[in-house]
Amino acid sequence: MILLRHGQSEFNLLFSQLRQDPGIIDPVLTPLGHQQAEEAAEALAREGIRRILVSPYRRAIQTALPTAKRLGLPLTVTPVVRERYAFTCDIGSARTNLARHFPEVDFTHLEEVWWPPEEEPAAHVEGRAALFRAEMAALDDWAHTLVVTHWGFIMALTGLSVANGQILRVDPNGPAPETVPWKHH
C-alpha cells in the first residue's frame, strides 16, 4: 500500500514555529500544503491506484482530493486511519460540516462525531494500526491502495516519522515495528 502524509496544515506551520499547540481545531492546508497535495497527485498518477482511503480530518481530505480527481476515483473516508488524538488539531469536524465543505465526498457511513473525546493513549493508536495492517494484508489488491493519513498513524503503523506530503510504500504482510518511538513533532 502507499501511505501519504497530508500536506502542511495551519497547525503544522505554527507548531513548527512556536513548538506549542496553537489551538486550531481541524486545520486546513496552507498554500504549501496544497502544493504538496498537487505534487503528490503528480507523483502518484502512474502507480496503478484503484482505491483511496482517507482520514476524515479536513487536511487529509484536502490532500487526497487532487489525486482522486486526477485518477477519477472516489475517496473512502476511513476513521481508523485518523491521527492520534493528542492536540487541539485532532478535534475533528462533524460529519454534517464535512459534507457541506466537501460535497463530492461520501460521508454517509461516518458518525456525526467520529474522533475520540480525549487524548488517545499510544497503545490504542498502535492497536488501530495493527488492525488496519491485518485488514490490508487480507486484501488481494493492497498494493493498489493509497492511504492518506497522518504523522501519528504512520508512526504507529511503520515506526517511521514522515514529513508533510511524504509518500511511503508499505507491505502490510511485512513485520510491524517492534517499537514505536513516540515523540511529538
TrEMBL record:
CDD domains per record: HP_PGM_like (cd07067)
Coiled-coil blocks: none
GO cellular component: cytoplasm
Alphabetical UniProt keywords: Glycolysis, Isomerase
Aminoacyl-tRNA synthetase in keyword set: no
InterPro entries according to UniProt: His_Pase_superF_clade-1 (IPR013078), His_PPase_superfam (IPR029033), PG/BPGM_mutase_AS (IPR001345), PGM_Phosphatase (IPR050275)
Entry-linked Pfam families: His_Phos_1
Gene3D superfamilies: Phosphoglycerate mutase-like
Presence of the UniProt keyword Isomerase in the record: yes
GO MF assignments: phosphatase activity
Name of the protein this chain belongs to: Histidine phosphatase family protein
Organism in which the protein naturally occurs: Neoroseomonas marina
Taxonomic lineage from the root: Bacteria, Pseudomonadati, Pseudomonadota, Alphaproteobacteria, Acetobacterales
